[in-house]
Amino acid sequence: MLRKTLLLIIAGILGFSSPAVIRAESGDAAPLAETPSSVSEKTVPSEPAPPARAPAPENYIIGPGDVLDISVWKDESLTRSCIVLPDGFISFPLAGYVTAAGRTASQLKADLEARLTRYVPGVTLSLEVKQVNSLIIYVIGRVNNPGRFILNVDINVLQALSTAGGLNPFANKNKIKIFREGSTETTIYPFEYDQVIEGKRLEQNIYLRRGDVVVIP
Length: 217
Prior knowledge:
Elements: H1 2-14, H2 19-26, H3 36-43, E1 67-72, E2 75-83, E3 89-92, E4 96-99, H4 105-116, E5 125-131, E6 135-141, E7 147-151, H5 157-163, E8 176-181, E9 186-191, H6 193-197, E10 213-216
Parallel strand pairs: 6-10
Antiparallel strand pairs: 1-2, 1-5, 3-4, 6-7, 8-9, 8-10
C-alpha cells in the first residue's frame, strides 16, 4: 500500500497523466489526431451572407419599352423623348439607330455624344430615364393575385409576394423558388418564407431582376 502511494506521488510530481484525463479536463472529446482547422470549422459557424441590396439608380439597365428624355444643350432640334423599341434600339437625329437596351444611361449617353460630335462639336448631351416600362417580373402559383407585374422600382422577394396579394392558405411557403434566365442557363434561387420573416437567412430575400419568375408551389 505504501509503495503504491509513493508511486502516485512521484507520478504527480513528474506531471504524468493519461490522454483520457486530458480530454475530460479540456472538454474536447475529439480524437487527438484532429487538426486545429477541422475543429474550428465545427465550433465556429460560418456567418450568413448579408441580404442583397437594391441596385443603385445609376446602374439601372435600360430595357425595351423604357422612355428616355434626351436633349442637347442649345439645340432644340435635338431634344426629344425616345421609346426603346422591342429590338432594344432607339432612333435619334444624326445618330441613327442606336442600341439602348442592356446599357446604363451613362453608357448610352457616351455613345450618343461620340456619334454627334462630328456634327455638333463640343456637344453637351443629357439623358434621363423618364419612365421605366421594362422592369417586369412574374409571380405564379399559390398567391392571391398571380400574374405579370410591371414595376418602376426594384423590389425583393417579400415585396413581390406582397404585390401579388400574399400567399394563399395552401401555399408551400418554404419551397418557393425564383427562376432567373441567363444568357446560357437558368439559375434557381430557393426562398424559405418562415426563416426570412423570422429574420434568419435574409440573404434569400434577393432583389429581383427583369424577367425573374417567382414560383409558389
